[in-house]
């Protein structure tokens, strides 16, 4: 009993990761965790997951898929296939690694140089790469190594290719327990520009001051070299990149969240009572460039600020295990004049040069204006229905709304998402169905809308 009690304390303090326990299955426990001593103070842990998408997409006007015009398309592919391994052989230090692939479809997302037909045909054999590799040192650990008591104040420092980011809670979102089907993407403001799939090399500090949890970083951005055009918008071109700075802090009014790993939970499914208020920032001097009408080069700082609130609250009788989850965030982006970025997740379409109709300004396939200099407001909410609603699975209807007021566009964009999570075994095995509606722009104004149905099959162990 003494050993079991000690092991439980360890799990609930230092070694509880945000991706396990609170939002997971009771059968899962600590998962694929291998203790290297009787107390569980030394261990290695592995996490595996995949998210497979099946989609029916209303493509933007002027789309080709496989050299054929396509107003609508169906496809299946891998949104994420990932593996995490991390180890702690001393309370004073930890090593974390995270690798995998993303966004493989039947026609793209494959290894460099693949295309056409055959063993190295289009979309095949994507290269596995590291998402995270970082080392961490405990300056003030969660538990006093001499007395065994929990410390009210903690401080950890680390370095590497890391995910301890600034700006907002959802910028450090866990991909395992989203409330919606996926992230809205603009929550990662440097995605695949000056980062490696969100991460940059740098140093970070994180910890807690009572109920105030914090994280901050100094990073070296990856180099960008998009060439600006005269009298055009600011573009990603940072020359010899200057250091980027970022941070996020939230005050946690009720239950305290674990912060061993950076991944923030999207939905606790009623297992916690959480209400957090947070704010963050990201700054990178001379991160973009533009040319004025005279062709003179101008450099611009990137400055981003956010404020957000997250709530995950059990409601109703305890026997029903109902919960409401909500998150709202406001961003103020400044990338330089008229900066505008387009994103199409697992986009299978390319522009049709022969198209003669009204062509979507965003591009082909499912492309949308993701972010730019301006303001974005995003809100999502979900309701975990009572257990008796369905005896086989738990059901959680969800919805999200985004308002984008971007400097380069003449009209505000409204984006809608509506769906439901079907939990076979909490987040460890779930199926999500979601419909998304996006505006389409022509000459900087909305002229139509398009939709996309997605069914996601997720398992993580």
TrEMBL record:
Residues 1-22 form the signal peptide. Keywords: Signal. The keyword Signal applies. It comes from the Bacteria. This is Porin. It comes from Pontibacter qinzhouensis.
